[in-house]
Specification:
The chain has 367 residues and is of the alpha/beta class. The protein has 2 domains: 83 residues, no CATH class; 253 residues, Spore Coat Polysaccharide Biosynthesis Protein SpsA, Chain A, CATH 3.90.550. The chain is built from 12 helices and 15 strands. Strand 14 and strand 15 form a beta hairpin. The longest helix is centred in the first third of the chain and has 32 residues. The relative contact order is 0.12. Bound molecules: 2-acetamido-2-deoxy-6-O-sulfo-beta-D-glucopyranose (NGS). The site of 2-acetamido-2-deoxy-6-O-sulfo-beta-D-glucopyranose (NGS) has 8 residues, from helix 9. It is found in: Membrane. Catalyses the transfer of galactose onto proteins or lipids. Keywords: Glycoprotein, Glycosyltransferase, Membrane, Signal-anchor, Transferase, Transmembrane, Transmembrane helix. Its EC number is 2.4.1.-.
């Protein structure tokens, strides 16, 4: 009798173990079938199945650390702590402590190699990418710069902007978008291409975009290259030939939008070939979508425009186009763009995207 019951008990626990083992396998299999394969799940499964290291829950609930709380804190010296080490860092401050006020623009007239050498201590990664090492960056920012035939100005831009951005402790990338020589320059279209290509190239990394003219250099460290809740016009006061250009109705020069805001307004119009109007069109789109444009005050929002001769022809159609901005904005922009990517050059200080487009085709497509 006792022998029989022991046998029964033995059989019972053995079948229970088998059952538990099968259920665990089934559970893991179902998770994969359902495509539930998030990072955190991977990390915890990795731990559960293969590790005897303990995950210490993040007990620091200060405001700064809340955004980190989804990441497990791993005991020091473990391999995983090295692998996932970045998650242990605290967020970089919203406004870095070392920012002072006005800064002089540095001029540069050496070669590109000399420029690269002069910036070699900044640890800029290929393609003009950078991220702070001492903290986890709050903002991932792409600078989109329509560009053609401005080598000397570009050197001054890079000489000033790389150290300026690094002081802000943001993660950033610098993208120049250049049309083939025979094409009419189209600033809005090039901004749209920069938005699309910079996201494609980085697997959708960027969250915030600075649409930036190459001839504008910030003159104050308190101009933060991040995206606040509303679109921001950064170059609110531009010193151009010794006079200050400013106005509530302007939105060109340097402006900041989040990825979502850019998508919501369908980007820039693709139809402004030549100088003028595309920034006014963009501003109408933003206001029409119930966003408010913010600006820094006169003491902060200061840029210097580097002198150059203009080689762009003025777009005589711009006022006609502006009359129909609102009517057209849902069908003319990111969702209707067509271009050819001719080349992508990964430089030491920037990524250059070389493109071509068919002016007549794009204009006919809408009208
Ligand atoms: C407006 C242009 C804008 C231009 C702004 C500032 O008149 O595209 O001047 O120009 N709009 C039209 O022509 C419709 S600036 O002072 O930078 O030369 O951005």
């Amino acid at each position: 009798m006792i022998k029989k019951s022991l046998l029964f008990l033995g059989n019972f626990s053995f079948s229970k173990i088998i059952l538990a083992f099968l259920s665990l396998n089934l559970f893991i299999f179902l998770l994969y079938v359902n495509g539930i394969e998030s990072n955190s799940l991977n990390i915890s499964l990795k731990y559960f199945l293969f590790s005897n290291e303990t995950i210490v829950p993040n007990s620091n609930n200060s405001k700064e650390n809340l955004d980190n709380s989804t990441f497990p804190t791993v005991s020091k010296n473990s391999n995983l702590s090295k692998e996932y080490g970045i998650y242990n860092k605290t967020l970089c401050p919203m406004i870095p402590a070392k920012l002072h006020g006005r800064i002089p623009v540095k001029y540069f007239n050496g070669t590109f190699i000399e420029l690269e050498n002069s910036l070699s201590n900044l640890s800029i990664e290929k393609g003009g990418l950078w991220s702070p090492k001492e903290c986890k960056p709050r903002y991932k920012v792409a600078l989109i710069i329509p560009y053609r035939n401005r080598e000397n100005i570009l050197k001054i831009f890079l000489k000033n902007l790389h150290p300026f951005l690094q002081k802000q402790q943001i993660e950033y990338g610098i993208y120049l978008i250049e049309p083939l020589q025979n094409l009419t320059f189209n600033r809005g279209l090039l901004m749209n291409i920069g938005f699309i290509e910079s996201l494609k190239k980085t697997n959708q990394k960027w969250e915030c975009f600075m649409f930036h003219d190459v001839d504008l250099i910030p003159e104050d460290e308190r101009i933060i290259y991040s995206c606040p809740e509303q679109p921001r016009h950064l170059s609110a006061f531009v010193t151009k030939f010794n006079t200050i250009v400013s106005g509530e109705a302007l939105f060109g020069g340097v402006s900041a939008l989040t990825k979502d805001q850019m998508k919501k307004v369908n980007g820039y119009s693709n139809l402004y070939f030549g100088w003028g109007g595309e920034d006014d069109d963009f501003r109408y789109r933003i206001l029409q979508n119930n966003f408010k444009i913010t600006r820094y005050p006169l003491e902060i929002g200061r840029y210097l425009m580097i002198r150059h001769t203009s080689d762009q022809k003025i777009n005589s159609e711009r006022f006609n186009l502006l009359k129909k901005t609102v009517e057209r904005m849902k069908t003319d922009g990111l969702n209707s763009i067509e271009y050819k990517l001719n080349d992508m050059i990964i430089g030491k200080l920037f990524t250059k995207v070389i493109v071509s487009y068919d002016e007549n085709y794009l204009l006919k497509k809408i009208y």
